[in-house]
Specification:
209 residues; Metallo-beta-lactamase, Chain A; six-stranded mixed β-sheet; 7 helices; 24% helix; 35% strand; globular
Length: 209
C-alpha cells in the first residue's frame, strides 16, 4: 500500500495572552489503510477519529504547543491508544491546555516517525514558538509546517514566546533548502510550495512579519 496524505478541517478557538480568535485548522493524516500518523489534532476529536477509521495511530504529533494545535490531542490519543509527541520546549504552552498531563515523546529527541513504509523527519523550527517543529516526508515531496510557514510568509510572531528573527533563521536553515517542488501543508489555510515561497524571503524580512 502506498502512503497518502489526508486533511481534516476543524474549527474552534485559539487562546493566548488573554485574547481569543476563531480559527480553522488543518489536521493532517499520513498513512495507508492500516496505519496513520496524526499531525496537529485540533478542536474536534470526533471528526479526526472518524477520518482515522479504526486504523492504528502510530502517534499524535503536535507541531507546537498552541492550544489550537493540541486541544484534541489527548482525546484522540486516548481513543486510539497512541503516544503524543511535542517538543518539550513548548511545555509552557501545552500546560495552558493540560495542566496535569504530559506528552509521551519529546519531539526534540525524535529523529523522525515511521508510518506506512515512509519516514517523516523532525525539523526543529523555533520562532513561532520555541519548540516548533516541521515534519518532512521526502517520499511524498511534502513538508508539514504547522505555523512555521504559510502561503505568503512566515507564521505570526507578535505573541508570547515568539521571535521573528528566530523564525526567519529557522525557515532559511530548515525549509528553504528543501526541493522547490516540496508541497508545504500548513497548519491553517491553503497549501503552497517551497519554490513559491523561497523567492519572497527578502520581502518578509523587509516588512518584519
Amino acid at each position: 500500500m502506498v502512503a497518502r496524505i489526508e486533511k481534516v478541517l476543524t474549527s474552534g478557538t485559539f487562546r493566548l495572552d488573554g485574547g481569543e480568535w476563531e480559527v480553522e485548522n488543518n489536521v493532517w493524516l499520513v498513512g495507508d489503510d492500516r496505519e496513520v500518523l496524526v499531525i496537529d489534532a485540533a478542536h474536534d476529536a470526533a471528526a479526526i477519529l472518524e477520518a482515522v477509521r479504526g486504523r492504528k495511530v502510530v502517534a499524535v504529533v503536535c507541531t507546537h504547543g498552541h492550544n489550537d494545535h493540541v486541544n484534541a490531542a489527548v482525546e484522540v490519543a486516548a481513543d486510539a491508544d497512541a503516544p503524543i509527541a511535542l517538543n518539550n520546549a513548548d511545555l509552557m504552552l501545552w500546560e495552558q491546555e493540560y495542566d496535569d498531563l504530559r506528552p509521551d515523546i519529546d519531539a526534540a529527541d525524535a529523529t523522525g516517525f515511521d508510518v506506512a513504509g515512509i519516514r517523516l523527519a523532525v525539523l526543529h523550527t523555533p520562532g513561532h514558538s520555541p519548540g516548533g517543529v516541521c515534519l518532512y516526508a521526502p517520499e511524498l515531496d511534502a513538508v508539514f509546517s504547522g505555523d512555521t510557514l504559510f502561503q505568503g510568509g512566515p507564521g505570526a510572531t507578535g505573541r508570547s514566546y515568539s521571535d521573528f528573527p528566530t523564525l526567519i533563521a529557522s525557515i532559511r536553515r530548515s525549509l528553504l533548502d528543501l526541493p522547490p517542488t516540496t508541497v508545504v501543508h500548513t497548519g491553517h489555510g491553503p497549501d503552497t510550495t517551497i519554490g513559491a515561497e523561497a523567492a519572497h524571503l527578502d520581502e518578509w524580512i523587509a516588512r518584519g512579519h
